[in-house]
Amino acid sequence: xxxxxxxxxxxxxxxxxxxxxxxxxxxxxxxxxxxxxxxxxxxxxxxxxxxxxxxxxxxxxxxxxxxxxxxxxxxxxxxxxxxxxxxxxxxxxxxxxxxxxxxxxxxxxxxxxxxxxxxxxxxxxxxxxxxxxxxxxxxxxxxxxxxxxxxxxxxxxxxxxxxxxxxxxxxxxxxxxxxxxxxxxxxxxxxxxxxxxxxxxxxxxxxxxxxxxxxxxxxxxxxxxx
Length: 226
Description:
Strand content: 5-15%
Number of domains: 1
CATH topology: Rossmann fold
CATH architecture: 3-Layer(aba) Sandwich
CATH class: Alpha Beta
Number of helices: 7
């Protein structure tokens, strides 16, 4: 797992560690093995012998500039994809984002088959990640799942604290761990793009493909109890 020291990595690693033998990596010390995804050779060394690679390392700021996005989101994702392929990894899971389709009108529910239409550079780098995933799957035996992750937050969002769009895109920690589990363990996949949100009553993202293809079973709802 790259980016294990990030918000998502810290939340899901303890859950998944009960199921798998995890090798945690991050740019910063203290979250596992230090790995700079900007170093291609280091990525190859880190992935040697791995069954699956979960790539979370990135600049997560939707308002980030090209200068800050380029090292991790563009170059780093290429290095991870290339290293996973060359190491013969069975499954590569790439953290894309619903920001990759943020250019669609607010009233349109995003489907996994929708073509990327980002409204910011961050979303464009996630569209790049999806394209890299398609390349890996077409060029090697490594299968790829690209997850368009929504609004990840540890606490159920409440009306007034977030925008309606963010609330409808909520992904809880419990469901995020289940999403990653399903992405790694699902069979019969070459390349797929899947939406990653919880079972929200009003959802910006359709989960039909995610539940059907990956066997993802979300439990949480941003509108629970209302």
